[in-house]
């Protein structure tokens, strides 16, 4: 673990230089050699400073760990305004979460940001002050003094005491029948309904340990973990991108349509072929594609929809169509408001589906089906916060949802959310 000690020492040396007693934004970077067994997730979990944020791109090329907050933002709109007001460099990253209601968020400019892009890693320290960079440099030195040595991530060793569903199965079946009746009446074409599973354990759940276990098994997913304080966290492993922006180039996708996966390749392939040819699932996916394209058309240039493909995960398989385009203007706030929530997590038309969710789901989604990631002037990327869990001390809430369209079968939809929740549930519970 020598690399983290060397990098922190170099940052202390840079902080010793004379800084002006004036407002402003500044950062110091030190290169971080990837020649030891450093795990940024273990490093985060060893600290007692908050917030902590971990994020890994689903292809594994990009990974970040953010520790401590220099500035906090209750919405992405406020974070974007901050970057513009400070005339921030293109690489200045603000990290965190957007709630299901995109007007709410928990994002922060980190004091320390460890970033790996492909084979190159950097440790960055941010300074920001509305009055004196000199004063903030002193606070940064105090912050660095609080950091502890990296310890191994503990194993998950928990005993579940109680488990309850909201809604339970009978209520879920009733809710799906109500949704399909409402669709038949023409109120909306699709609604995505979710279930919350509350599990009480015999001791507090270690968010970093759960994130590490999920990262090891749930491959081809984005992994994200926001630790708000010593008792509260939100985390997940999701296959779905909300958007990726590089300059004005934008990539998004429609991930909708689900079937079970299988450990055996041939059986998984047969299930995938069924999904590719199933009318209900293809229709559900195309509803999402059409909605995304319609929402983007006034803000982008030519839209390109790629052919459907199967995304195979540990417990489920999905239909995905990627959508590529170029923005007329680089505006992350606009991207969020246009794309979230998509028809894949709310329904279509959006407003009617959201009203049905608010009136009928027996819990508040909070961060579930929102998004997790980062924004900067030069680029941004957020994943959809699915296959996720909310931790509060010894209580865990797991989330899973299913897209309901005309012809949806309530029993099949219950099986679908069971399969989706299994991505995290099986790491903690042994049936």
TrEMBL record:
GO biological process: menaquinone biosynthetic process
UniProt domain Chorismate-utilising enzyme C-terminal: residue ranges: 169-420
Keyword Manganese (UniProt): no
InterPro entries the UniProt entry points to: ADC_synthase (IPR005801), Chorismate_C (IPR015890), IsoChor_synthase (IPR004561), MenF (IPR034681), MenF-like (IPR044250)
Residues forming the catalytic site: 190, 240
Cofactor(s) demanded: Mg(2+)
Pathway this chain belongs to: Quinol/quinone metabolism; menaquinone biosynthesis; Quinol/quinone metabolism; 1,4-dihydroxy-2-naphthoate biosynthesis; 1,4-dihydroxy-2-naphthoate from chorismate: step 1/7
EC number: 5.4.4.2
Protein keywords: Isomerase, Magnesium, Menaquinone biosynthesis, Metal-binding
Catalytic activities: chorismate = isochorismate
Protein residues bound to Mg(2+): 284, 416
Superkingdom classification of source: Bacteria
A GO term, aspect molecular function: magnesium ion binding
Family: Belongs to the isochorismate synthase family.
Function: Catalyzes the conversion of chorismate to isochorismate.
This protein's name: Isochorismate synthase MenF
Organism: Enterobacter soli
Lineage: Bacteria, Pseudomonadati, Pseudomonadota, Gammaproteobacteria, Enterobacterales
